[in-house]
Design goal:
Chain lengths: 392, 388
C-alpha cells in the first residue's frame, strides 16, 4: 500500500507543473492567510515581549494601594524611607538600599509619522538608577546630571517621536530640558521613555511625592518577606508586586485585543482560502479522471489514490504556509511601531515573528490544506472506474 | 437584458466551482465590510464627539498636568466664549478594575451650558441632582448593565484620588437620576458615563484642591474657533501652566491617532485579502473560459460579434462578483453589533459599506478582462477544431 501511495503521489507531483495555475491558487491563498495571521500576532508578541522584558523577578514595584498603574499612584517621601529599610532589599557597599523612587508623568511630544502630539512618559528616577536597573546602557551622548534640567531618551522613543536626539531641547513648563543621551535597556518598555532626575522633575511639576518605588531585592525568594513587611506595616498603604507580574498585567488587555482580532480575521480568511483549495483540488481530480480510473483499473487501491490527493493538497498548503510566514518575517520582523499602552502612555515596540508564530502559521496552513483536499479525495475514491474511462 | 438567461446559465455551468468561488468572494467582502467600518470609525472619530462649537483647553505640556481653577474666570471673559466648565479625570471603576466607569466630577450648571442638546435628563431628576451634594447621574444603559436603581448608593473606586477624611480611594455617591443621549449616535460614547458634583470631589480629595484637569468651552461662532483658541492660550502664555486650546473634535482625533496607524494595519490586511482573492477568482474565470472555448466559437459562428463575446464574459464576472459582494457586505452589516461591543466609544457607521460595491465592480473587471479578451480574440476555425 505504501509503495502504491508513493508511486501515485510521485506521479501526481510530476504533473504539477502542468497544473501550475490551479495549484498556485492553493499556495497563494494559504500564503495570504498565514502572512496576515503571523504579522498581526507578531504585533501582540512584540508588545508582550517589550513589556515582559522590563520585569525581573528580583525587582519589586511599590505603588500606593489600589492605584493599578504608576501614573495614578502617589508615594510620600516618608513612605520611601520606610520601604528602604524593609527586609530583603539589596544594599550597596555603603549599606544604602538599592531603590529608585520614581516620579512618572507624561509629556506631549509629536509623533514622527503623524506629527500629532503623543503621551510620552517622562520618568524621574533616583540616583541608584544604574544599580537598580543594570540593563540600562547609554548608547550615545552621556548620562543626565542630577539637579539640572537634563534628560536621556530611550532608543525607541528617539525613533518614534520628534526632537529627542542628543543635544535637542525639550520645552517643559516654561523651562528648557537638554537631551544629553540615548539609552537602551534590553528592548524593554523603558526604551519608550525619557529619564531624568526625580527631584528635578518633581520641582518642575510642583509635585512633592513620588509615583512608585523600584527596589532590587537580594534574590527572587526575598520577595515574599519584603512584601509581607510592607503590607503589614500599618503606616503604609501600598501594593507590592514583582516587576514581572506588574508588566504582565499591563500588557494583557492590548495583547488580548490584538490576538482576538488577528485570529478572527485569520479564521475568516482561512475559510475563504479553503474554498479556493477545494476548487483547485476538485478540478485537479476532474482533470485527471481518466488517469485515476486507469490506475484503479490496473489494481491501485482507492485509499492510496485518495491519500495521494490529500498529500498533494497538504504539500501545496505547506509551501503556502512557509511562503506566508517568510513574507511576514521579511516585511515585518523588527518593524518598529508605537501605540498607547495600558497606562495612558506610549509604548514603542518591535513586531516580533517568533518561532512559535511561524510553527502556528504552518499548522494553520496544513489544516486548511487537509480540509481542502479531503472532499476532492473522497470524490476520487468514489469515482466509477468504468464511467471515468469511457468519458472522453 | 435578454442575454441574462445565457449569462446565468454559463455562470452555473460548473455548479460546485461557482459556489466555492462565490463563497470565497463573499468571505473577502465580509472582511472588507468589517475592516472598512472600523477604519471609517477611527478616521471619523471626531465627528460624533461634539459640535464644532466646543473647545477643550488642556495643559500644554501634558494631559496629566492640571490647571488652576482660577483660569476659569479669565477664560469666561474671553470674547466669543459663551460658557466654560471644568472637569478632572477621576479614573474610576466599580468593584473590579475591569468594570471601568467613566465617572466625571462636573460643575452642575456650567457643564450643561457647554454641553447643550447633548443629554436628556428628566427635569425633576436634574433638580434632585443639583440639590444633592452627593448625587450622581448615571447613563441609563450603565444602570441596566449593573442593575442599579435610582436611590441606590453607588460605591466607586478611584485609582487616583484619596479622600481627605478617610484616606481611602473609595467614594460613595447617591444615584438620583439617569441620563440618555439626545443624539442616539452618541450613545456608545456615553456607555459608561457617570456625573457627580465637582464641589464634593474638590473638597473631599486629599490633594490637588483648587486644580482642574481641563476646561471645556462653548463658543457662539464656530468659525471663530481658531481665533478664540489663540486668545485663550495667550492669556496663560508665560505662566507655569501654559495651555493648549483646540476644538474638541481635534482633541479626540489626536487621542485616537495615539493608538498608531490603525488605518495602515487594516489596509495592509485588506490588501493581502484582495490580492489573494484576485488571484483565486481570476484563475477560476480563466479556467472557465478555457473549458468553454468551443462553445464560445459556436456563439461567434451564430453571429455574435467579438465585442458581444467580450461583454458576455465580463457580464458573467460582474454578476459573480456583485452577487458575492452584496452577500458579503450584508453579512458584515450583521456583524456590526458584535464589533461595536468590542469597541466601546467608537461609532460604527454603515456608510463605510457603500464603497464595497464599487470595489466589487473593479474586481469583476480586473478578473474578467483577461479571459474576456481571450474570448474576443478567438479565431472561430481554430477554436472549433479545439486547437488552442
Amino acid at each position: 500500500m505504501f509503495k502504491q501511495l508513493a508511486a501515485v503521489s510521485w506521479m501526481n507531483l510530476q504533473t504539477l507543473p502542468q497544473r501550475i495555475g490551479a495549484s498556485s491558487v492553493i499556495v497563494i491563498g494559504i500564503a495570504g492567510v498565514v502572512a496576515v495571521l503571523v504579522s498581526v500576532l507578531a504585533m501582540s508578541a512584540g508588545f508582550k515581549h517589550t513589556l515582559a522584558d522590563g520585569g525581573r523577578a528580583d525587582r519589586a514595584i511599590i505603588l500606593r494601594g489600589g492605584s493599578d498603574a504608576e501614573l495614578n499612584s502617589n508615594i510620600t517621601r516618608a513612605d520611601i524611607d520606610t520601604i528602604s529599610n524593609a527586609p530583603g532589599i539589596a544594599k550597596d557597599a555603603n549599606g544604602k538600599a538599592l531603590l529608585s523612587a520614581e516620579l512618572v508623568s507624561v509629556v506631549n511630544v509629536p509623533r514622527v509619522d503623524t506629527g500629532t502630539d503623543a503621551n510620552v512618559t517622562l520618568r524621574g528616577v533616583g540616583l541608584m538608577l544604574t544599580r537598580v536597573r543594570p540593563e540600562l546602557t547609554i548608547v550615545s551622548g552621556r548620562m543626565f546630571q542630577p539637579a539640572v534640567r537634563e534628560l536621556i531618551a530611550g532608543a525607541g522613543a528617539v525613533k518614534q517621536f520628534r526632537g529627542l536626539t542628543p543635544g535637542s531641547v525639550l520645552h517643559l513648563r516654561g523651562a528648557d530640558w537638554l537631551v544629553t543621551g540615548v539609552f537602551t535597556s534590553n528592548g524593554d518598555v523603558h526604551e519608550s521613555e525619557l529619564l531624568a532626575d526625580a527631584d528635578t522633575v518633581g520641582s518642575s511639576l510642583e509635585r512633592t511625592g513620588y509615583s512608585s518605588a523600584i527596589a532590587l531585592l537580594t534574590d527572587p525568594a526575598a520577595f515574599t518577606p519584603f512584601k509581607d513587611a510592607l503590607t503589614t506595616d500599618p503606616q503604609l498603604k501600598v501594593d507590592v508586586q514583582r516587576e514581572t507580574d506588574y508588566y504582565a498585567a499591563q500588557s494583557r488587555p492590548l495583547t488580548k485585543t490584538i490576538n482576538v482580532v488577528g485570529n478572527t480575521v485569520a479564521v475568516i480568511m482561512a475559510i475563504g482560502a479553503m474554498f479556493g483549495a477545494l476548487n483547485s483540488m476538485y478540478s485537479a481530480v476532474a482533470a485527471r479522471g481518466r488517469e485515476i480510473a486507469t490506475l484503479r483499473a490496473i489494481g491501485f487501491g482507492a485509499l492510496p489514490v485518495s491519500l495521494s490527493i490529500m498529500l498533494e493538497a497538504l504539500l501545496l498548503a505547506l509551501l503556502g504556509g512557509i511562503i506566508g510566514a517568510a513574507l511576514a518575517w521579511f516585511f515585518f520582523n523588527g518593524h518598529t511601531v508605537s501605540t498607547l499602552g495600558g497606562a495612558f502612555a506610549q509604548v514603542v515596540f518591535r513586531l516580533t515573528v517568533t518561532p512559535t508564530l511561524i510553527v502556528g502559521g504552518i499548522v494553520w496552513a496544513c489544516v486548511i490544506g487537509l480540509l481542502g483536499g479531503l472532499f476532492p479525495a473522497l470524490r476520487a475514491a468514489r469515482l466509477s472506474v468504468a464511467d471515468a474511462l469511457r468519458a472522453a | 437584458m435578454k442575454y441574462f438567461p445565457l449569462i446565468w446559465a454559463t455562470l452555473w455551468r460548473k455548479r460546485v466551482r461557482t459556489i466555492f468561488t462565490l463563497l470565497s468572494i463573499v468571505i473577502a467582502f465580509l472582511l472588507f465590510g468589517m475592516l472598512e467600518t472600523v477604519d471609517y470609525a477611527f478616521a471619523h472619530a471626531g465627528d460624533g464627539v461634539a459640535g464644532a462649537n466646543q473647545l477643550i483647553t488642556i495643559n500644554k505640556y501634558s494631559i496629566t498636568l492640571s490647571l488652576p481653577l482660577a483660569d476659569v474666570q479669565e477664560v469666561r471673559a474671553v470674547p466669543g466664549v459663551s460658557a466654560v466648565t471644568w472637569i478632572t479625570w477621576f479614573g474610576a471603576y466599580y468593584q473590579e478594575s475591569k468594570n471601568f466607569v467613566f465617572a466625571l466630577p462636573i460643575e452642575t450648571q456650567s457643564y450643561f451650558d457647554v454641553h447643550t442638546n447633548t443629554f436628556v435628563v428628566k427635569d425633576d431628576e436634574m433638580a434632585a441632582f443639583r440639590n444633592t451634594r452627593s448625587g450622581a447621574l448615571v447613563y441609563s444603559g450603565l444602570m441596566k448593565k449593573f442593575g442599579w436603581k435610582v436611590g441606590d448608593k453607588l460605591p466607586l473606586h478611584s485609582t487616583i484620588w484619596t479622600q481627605k477624611s478617610t484616606g481611602s480611594l473609595d467614594w460613595t455617591f447617591d444615584i438620583v437620576g439617569t441620563f440618555d443621549a439626545k443624539d442616539p449616535a452618541q450613545a456608545s460614547q456615553m456607555s459608561s458615563n457617570v456625573m457627580f458634583h465637582y464641589e464634593l470631589f474638590d473638597e473631599g480629595r486629599s490633594f490637588g484642591n483648587g486644580q482642574v484637569g481641563w476646561l471645556e468651552e462653548r463658543v457662539s461662532d464656530p468659525s471663530q474657533s481658531a481665533a478664540i483658541s489663540s486668545r485663550i492660550d495667550a492669556l496663560f502664555a508665560n505662566s507655569s501652566n501654559e495651555t493648549k486650546t483646540q476644538p474638541a473634535k481635534d482633541f479626540s482625533m489626536t487621542f485616537i491617532k495615539q493608538f498608531g496607524d490603525i488605518g495602515f494595519v487594516l489596509r495592509a490586511i485588506l490588501g493581502a485579502v484582495f490580492f489573494t482573492l484576485l488571484f483565486l477568482t481570476g484563475n477560476t474565470m480563466m479556467q472557465s473560459v478555457r473549458e468553454r472555448i468551443p462553445e464560445l466559437a459556436v456563439l461567434k459562428t451564430l453571429g455574435f460579434s467579438d465585442g458581444g463575446v467580450l461583454a458576455l464574459v465580463i457580464a458573467e464576472s460582474l454578476l459573480l462578483c456583485v452577487i458575492a459582494a452584496l452577500a458579503g457586505l450584508a453579512l458584515s452589516y450583521a456583524t456590526l453589533p458584535y464589533i461595536q461591543q468590542g469597541l466601546p466609544g467608537v461609532e460604527l457607521s454603515s456608510n463605510a459599506l457603500l464603497p464595497g460595491v464599487a470595489v466589487a465592480v473593479v474586481l469583476a473587471i480586473v478578473v474578467g478582462l483577461p479571459p474576456a479578451l481571450r474570448a474576443m480574440r478567438l479565431n472561430i476555425v481554430d477554436a472549433l477544431a479545439d486547437k488552442r
